[in-house]
């Protein structure tokens, strides 16, 4: 089955460019388009895309609020890939905190766009980990957020789960973590699932943001 994508951007040329790049791939299908975040929820419910590629800045409802709305109201929400002009934009970090699964630069090369969609759909690696660290260092609270620290303490991660979370935060995939720890990939998947459940995170991106927000992992 192809990865299905909904494009949301107020610039028709951006949507056309993304559609052309993605539909050139045999394993990706663009199932719809929208010009504003306000149209996302009905389209997500109607089309059930795997991934929503969504502009972070739009006139009526921006990507941050649209992300929150989707995650709050859709029972099985899609992965959300925020599309942005500037990677060090505070809006991008807020979108990740709101629940977005990653971000994509509008100037990205076609191969990078395709890779980002596939990676977010698979959910087994962190997209642009170095940039996420940079955003956390720039916009996260120094020393961590009190509520995030309390949540991390309540999670009571085991020593191995904590190790897996640190490796996730550095951008290692499940296969790379397995090689580093000399365990099977299925074992790593079990540890990742446990970390997500204990942190109340829907995916590894949210778990990593929680790790940075709590000060469990230093963003530098």
TrEMBL record:
It comes from the Bacteria. Residues 4-121 form the Response regulatory domain. Residues 150-215 form the HTH luxR-type domain. Keywords: DNA-binding, Phosphoprotein, Transcription, Transcription regulation. InterPro entries: CheY-like_superfamily, NreC/VraR/RcsB-like_REC, Sig_transdc_resp-reg_C-effctor, Sig_transdc_resp-reg_receiver, Tscrpt_reg_LuxR_C, WalR-like. Pfam families: GerE, Response_reg. This is Response regulator transcription factor.
């Amino acid at each position: 089955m192809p990865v299905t994508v909904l494009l949301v951007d107020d610039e028709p040329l951006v949507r056309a460019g993304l559609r052309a790049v993605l539909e050139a791939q045999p394993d990706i299908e663009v199932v719809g388009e929208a010009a504003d975040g306000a149209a996302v929820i009905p389209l997500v419910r109607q089309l059930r895309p795997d991934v929503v590629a969504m502009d972070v800045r739009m006139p009526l409802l921006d990507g941050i609020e649209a992300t929150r709305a989707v995650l709050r109201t859709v029972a099985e929400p899609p992965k959300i890939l925020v599309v942005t002009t500037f990677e060090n934009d505070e809006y991008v970090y807020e979108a990740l905190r709101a629940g977005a699964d990653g971000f994509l630069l509008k100037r990205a090369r076609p191969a990078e766009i395709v890779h980002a969609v596939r990676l977010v759909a698979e959910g087994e690696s962190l997209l642009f980990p170095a940039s996420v660290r940079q955003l956390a260092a720039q916009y996260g609270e120094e020393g961590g957020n009190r509520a995030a620290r309390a949540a991390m303490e309540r999670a009571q991660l085991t020593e191995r789960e904590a190790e897996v979370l640190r490796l996730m935060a550095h951008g290692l995939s499940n296969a790379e973590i397995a090689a580093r720890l000399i365990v099977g990939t299925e074992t790593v998947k079990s540890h990742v699932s446990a970390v997500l459940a204990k942190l109340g995170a829907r995916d590894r991106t949210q778990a990593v943001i929680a790790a940075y927000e709590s000060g469990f992992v230093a963003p530098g």
